Amino acid sequence: MPYFLRYFERGSMAMLLLGAVVNCLAVVIGGGIGLLLKRGLPAKVGETIMGGLALCVLYIGISGSLAGENILIVIISIVIGSLLGEWLDLEGKINRFGEWLQGDSMIAHGFITASILFCVGAMAIVGSLQSGLTGNHETLFAKSLIDGIAALVLASTLGAGVLLSGGLLLIYEGGLTLLAKAIEPYLTTSVINEVTCVGSLLIIGIALNMLKVTNLKIMNYVPAIFIVMALCLFR
Predict the structure, then answer these.
(1) Domain count, the chain
(2) C-beta atoms surrounding 31 within 10 Å
């Protein structure tokens, strides 16, 4: 057995962060392969691959959305969460931050583009919470495969900045995983199911955006994930 897998078996903290670590490695490896494709992938091939990834994301979202047990809580969470997200203008802030960092550097452009794609999505949040709460890394493993292929496509055109986003991804998902573990005593199976349902609806939104069916401001819906936690805990 490879050394790093034995390490994850021994250390509980390392095992908890396994999903985040694998996701980071997938981005770095996929991006590294993309850099080897010096001339880049043909545009049509890239579009076809991204379309296939979108279908996979859609499948993951639909599967997770079936975990919900109370449709009223889901609806209220989405409505309140979207209003809060619009009021805070989360999507706009992320975009302006990216523009501020980007400058004229191709490396910065690749870093920002990849970071937004890999970190902002609901899969990162839901997957990290699942890792921290249940030790189930399936969502982050699935996301790792998607992100690795996406990193390959992005790095072949945007360069080494895509690989750098792997470090930020590790910090982001690892932090969410550890936070989830801290609040574990307050989260029942019912709460986790409702969070998974709401998060999966956002995953469906990401897939629809990837397929260019919609242009949803997904980041503005992210507060719904935390609203559903509060509603379930205090109902």
Answers:
(1) 1
(2) 29
